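Appendix B. Raw example, untouched.
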Amino acid sequence: MNKQEVYDFLKNNGIEFEAVEHPAVFHMGEDHGVELPHPEADAKNLFVRDDKKQNYCLITVRGGKKVDLKAFRREHGLRPLSFGSPEALKEKLDLIPGSVCPFGLLNRAGCDVKFYLDADFLKEPYLIGCHPNDNTATVFIKTDDMIRLLESHNISVEVVELPLREE
C-alpha cells in the first residue's frame, strides 16, 4: 500500500486518524523542523533479523527510546539480532528504509515478520504515530485501533515492556 492507500484503508475500516504531511524523514533524529501534534506518541520502528536470517521482527517503540537488542533477544528466546537489509525489508514488508512502520505488515499476506509493540503506547495519550508506508507523512491513530486492525488481518501483536540501553 502506498500512502493514499493506507489513508483509504483506514477510512474504509472506520478508523479515525490524523495525518500530518511533511518533508521526508529517514530516522528519528532527523525532523526537518516538523511540528507533530502528538510528539509523545511518535513511533520508532526497528526491522531486525536473527543471525541465521530465519526470523524477522518489527519492534515499534515509543519516541527516542534505545532498545537493548541483546536483552530483548534473550527475553524472547531469539538468536543474536541485527538490523535487516534493505533487500529483506523490501521482500518481507514491501517497504524501503526510512518508511518502516506497522502498516507495512499489511503489505504481504501471510507475512512472517513477528511484531512487538512497546507497552508504553497503551498509556496516555493512547495514540501511536507512524509513517503510512511513506516517510513524507505521519499518521496518528488510537493504539487499540492499530492493534485491532493488525489482528483482524491475522497479524499477531505482542505488547511488551522493552529492555532499554543505558546511555
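End of appendix B.
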